[in-house]
Amino acid sequence: MLTISKRHSISHTHLRNGLLFALPWIVGFLAFQLYPIGASLYYSFTQYDIFSPPRWIGLQNYAAVFQDSNFYQALGNTVYMIIIGLPIGLIGGFLIGHLMNGKTRLMPLFRTSFFLPNAMPAVASLFVMLWLFNPAVGLVNQILGLVHLPQPLWYDSATWAKPFLIGAGLWGVGYTGLLYLSAMKAVPSELYEAAQLDGAGTWAQMRHITIPMVSPVTLFLLITGMIGTLSSFTSPYIIGGGSGSPDGSLLFLSVYIYSQALHYLNMGYASALAWTLLVMSLLLTLTVLKWARGWLFYGGQ
Predict the structure, then answer these.
(1) Domain 67-294, architecture per CATH
(2) What are phi and psi of 55, to 5 degrees?
(3) Residue 157 and residue 49: Cα distance in Å, rounded?
């Protein structure tokens, strides 16, 4: 009995010590994450402007979301980036990863040069892109002028603003390439050797071996990329100044939520927008997971 009692005492002591060590994180989670999440859910059913007490209005904010033309414009811009920008980033990352999978003496330098832009702060990287694509004095337009090609207004044009964001995003494609590289390194070399004996060329090997074997990484990047695109804020906010300029082409969902919350103090409506975005992210993720069953392949299967 004494032995059992002693074991219980030691177990309770370990539990207490563990909770004490975890207490700072627990307090931070409750105060800075769980409480704001719960509060935003409550505010989404109220009319709240920070200065006055919240007033319960039920589902009116959610009804207003689907009658808001600005919401649909922000949703359209976001969907454009998911449908057009995200695949370009994935394909670019896959090709970079394939290049980094080569065997040359300078390969470490080559890999570092592609990943290095990811070490730069996002805002600093964006300002480099803004300088390069400046419609008046940017290096890109100067080069286009030298070869007598059209010189777009880029981020000053509603037509070219989103393509500019997609192109600027390729600056950091080295991170995607590095993840693909790690997956490609795990592909058994015996598969390529067997394919070569059967007469398969480079494209056939990539199509039937490399792409299926790295599909788990593709799924991961696809889901995280969609969530990141749905919540994209920094670049469109800096360029558009929170208004989505030019002509609403850079009005994304996160920017619109921020604008409603802190520019117009419609905290209740902004909370409803945020929860609508959360539900959309969840539904989109579940849809992709279901769709991925047809092409997802794990090496152990």
Answers:
(1) Orthogonal Bundle (1.10)
(2) -115, 125
(3) 34
Nearest to 82 by CA among 176, 166, 158: 166
State residue 63's pLDDT score: 96
Residues 240 and 255 sit within 8 Å (Cβ to Cβ): yes
Reduced to 3 states, what is the DSSP secondary structure of residue 186? coil
Residue type, 112: T
pTM over 0.85: yes
* Interior angle at CA 259, CA 253 and CA 261, nearest 5: 105
- Classified as helix, coil or strand, 241 is coil
Q: Chain-centre distance of CA 218, in angstroms?
A: 13
> Mean pLDDT for each 10-residue chunk of the chain (301 residues)?
60 83 90 91 95 94 96 95 95 92 83 86 91 93 94 93 93 92 91 90 91 94 94 92 88 94 94 96 95 84 57
Q: Which two tokens stand for residue 94?
A: 């896959």
pLDDT of residue 115: 86
The CA distance from 277 to 230, in Å, is 8
Contact 96, 114 (CB under 8 A): yes
Give the contacts of 298 (CB within 8 A, at least 6 positions apart): 216
